[in-house]
Write a structure and sequence with these properties.
This protein has helices spanning 3-21, 25-41, 46-70, and strands at 90-93, 100-105, 108-114, 123-131, 134-138. By secondary structure, the protein is of the alpha+beta class. The chain folds into two domains: 3-70, no CATH class; 89-138, OB fold (Dihydrolipoamide Acetyltransferase, E2P) (Beta Barrel). The chain has a five-stranded mixed sheet, with no helix packed on it. Helix 2 (25-41) runs antiparallel to helix 3 (46-70). The longest helix has 25 residues, at 46-70.
Length: 139
């Protein structure tokens, strides 16, 4: 069997394993295997194939790590206004029982908790977080 076919089989196995891990690192190594297949198709000897595969895999892995470092930290879905459109909306709280209350919001009764540091007084609050059926509100 030709060397380039072995490299393609290795790349295919790595891609299949990547589907179970979900980290993209095996995909970067599979890119290295594809580079090895390309070099093998050019009839370069095995050490050259392995060197090309290793170089491409290392470069791709380093680039993947740098890309992940440059991405901003993700906000929890319960606090992310891109996920939950209720975040940032105003809600009227007529009275508080300690730091909790029940309010009508969007046609239903909701439990409301006061965010730490916010004063418990009747008025309009902004929804900061949604935990199940509880709205966490702040000033």
């Amino acid at each position: 069997m030709a060397d380039w076919i072995m490299w393609l089989i290795a790349a295919g196995v790595l891609v299949a394993l990547e589907l179970f891990s979900g980290t993209f690192y095996l995909l970067m190594i599979a890119l290295g295997a594809l580079a090895g297949a390309l070099v093998a198709a050019l009839r370069i000897d095995l050490p050259g194939q392995m060197l090309a595969a290793a170089l491409v895999a290392v470069i791709a892995t380093v680039l993947l790590r740098q890309r992940r470092r440059n991405q901003p930290a993700q906000v929890a879905a319960s606090r992310n206004p891109d996920v939950n459109l209720d975040i940032g909306q105003p809600v009227q709280v007529p009275h508080w029982d300690g730091h909790t209350a029940r309010v009508m919001y969007r046609g239903a009764l909701w439990d409301v908790e006061l965010a730490p540091g916010a004063p418990a007084a009747a008025g309009t609050y902004t929804i900061r977080e949604v935990r199940g059926s509880t709205l966490i509100v702040g000033a």
